[in-house]
């Protein structure tokens, strides 16, 4: 079963060979190039509900330009404003309303741009020596300006496991403190140094809900540009159904039958919980579980 997941599936040709060629990049920066117009890190949306594209003349003269790739034969860029502050929380209702109008391809393009622009805004200084860094390789690298250091820094992706835990036909779902009332989702957590994906799944479920799991399997993944995670969707079986909640991680957790999950996914008013939104991989994991 193929899952059509938000922020994945961009039609952009990333053209890595062009990123590494300063002359080729410079030749692309003319009136034909397209600039993805952003309000900080949020997308600007056209009256028709699509991404708003301008030209390089729309960019702040002091901004750095990130080469996103080619689309329809045209070079596409995003600008890193000189005073932009990165890692804006994704709880902005206006942002989610805007994203709901975008196609999957546009969401993926926006997600790539947001993650890159945000990374540049947060990495203006070298992690090795503290000196300033400058944009390089078409925006897919930053280089330390200290002639002794010259460290090269690259955009990072943080792996996060998100898992459906099953026990005798029921799913374990929980609500984080930041979620609105009744909104439940799959448990999730960052992969730590020295861990495999399977080990991270087992540890996170044990820490958050006190449940031991076995037979961890991969389902699907999702780039999540808030700020730059890779959500690794998994499925596992629980050895028991006794829940011991870590209140620093979850406000509530429980087991839900197939009928209860289906009712939530249909948006029924009397459902036991509110399902995750379609933009989240948790929504697609629940759909996968119901349909498989």
Write the layout of secondary structure elements.
Layout: H1 16-19, H2 22-28, E1 34-36, E2 38-39, E3 42-43, E4 53-54, E5 64-71, E6 74-80, H3 93-99, H4 104-122, E7 133-136, E8 141-144, E9 152-153, E10 158-167, E11 170-175, E12 187-190, H5 197-209, E13 213-224, E14 229-238, E15 252-256, H6 258-265, H7 281-291
Parallel strand pairs: 1-6, 10-14
Antiparallel strand pairs: 1-4, 2-3, 5-6, 7-8, 8-9, 10-11, 10-12, 11-15, 13-14
Radius of gyration: 21 Å
Strand content: 25-35%
Give the % helix.
10-25%
According to CATH, the fold-level topology of the largest domain is: Nucleoside Triphosphate Pyrophosphohydrolase
Model regions low in confidence, pLDDT < 50 over at least 5 residues: none
Order of helices and strands: HHEEEEEEHHEEEEEEHEEEHH
| Number of domain units | 2
Given helix and strand content, the structural type is alpha+beta
How many strand units?
15
CATH architecture assignment of the largest domain:
Alpha-Beta Complex
Please, how many helices? 7
Intertermini distance? 8 Å
The CATH fourth-level homologous superfamily of the largest domain: Nucleoside Triphosphate Pyrophosphohydrolase
Overall form: globular
Biggest sheet record: 6 strands, mixed
Mean pLDDT equals 94
CATH class of the largest domain: Alpha Beta
Task: Summarize it.
With 292 residues, this protein is α+β, with helices and mostly antiparallel strands.
Task: List the defining traits of the structure above.
single chain, 292 residues, alpha+beta, Nucleoside Triphosphate Pyrophosphohydrolase, 2 domains, six-stranded mixed sheet, four-stranded mixed sheet, 24% helix, globular
């Amino acid at each position: 079963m193929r899952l059509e997941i938000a922020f994945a599936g961009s039609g952009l040709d990333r053209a890595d060979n062009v990123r590494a060629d300063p002359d080729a990049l410079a030749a692309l920066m003319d009136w034909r190039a397209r600039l993805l117009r952003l309000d900080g890190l949020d997308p600007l949306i056209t009256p028709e509900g699509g991404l708003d594209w301008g030209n390089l003349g729309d960019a702040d003269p002091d901004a750095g330009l990130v080469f996103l790739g080619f689309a329809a034969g045209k070079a596409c860029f995003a600008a890193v404003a000189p005073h932009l502050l990165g890692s804006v929380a994704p709880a902005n209702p206006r942002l989610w309303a805007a994203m709901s109008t975008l196609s999957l391809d546009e969401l993926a393009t926006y997600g790539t741009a947001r993650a890159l622009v945000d990374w540049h805004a947060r990495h203006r200084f070298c992690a090795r020596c503290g000196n300033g860094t400058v944009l390089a390789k078409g925006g897919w690298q930053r280089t330390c300006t200290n002639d002794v250091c010259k460290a090269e820094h690259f955009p990072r992706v943080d792996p996060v496991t998100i898992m459906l835990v099953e026990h005798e036909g029921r799913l374990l779902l929980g609500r984080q403190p930041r979620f609105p009332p009744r909104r439940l989702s799959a448990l999730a957590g960052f992969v730590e140094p020295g861990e495999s994906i399977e080990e991270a799944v087992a540890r996170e479920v044990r820490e958050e809900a006190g449940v031991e799991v076995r037979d961890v399997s991969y389902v699907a993944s999702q780039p999540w540009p808030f700020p730059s995670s890779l959500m690794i969707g998994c499925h596992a079986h629980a050895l028991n159904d006794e829940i011991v909640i870590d209140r620093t991680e979850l406000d509530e957790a429980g087991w839900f039958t197939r009928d209860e999950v289906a009712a939530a996914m249909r948006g029924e008013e009397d459902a036991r919980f509110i399902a995750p939104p379609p933009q989240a991989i948790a929504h697609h994991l629940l759909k996968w579980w119901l349909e498989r």
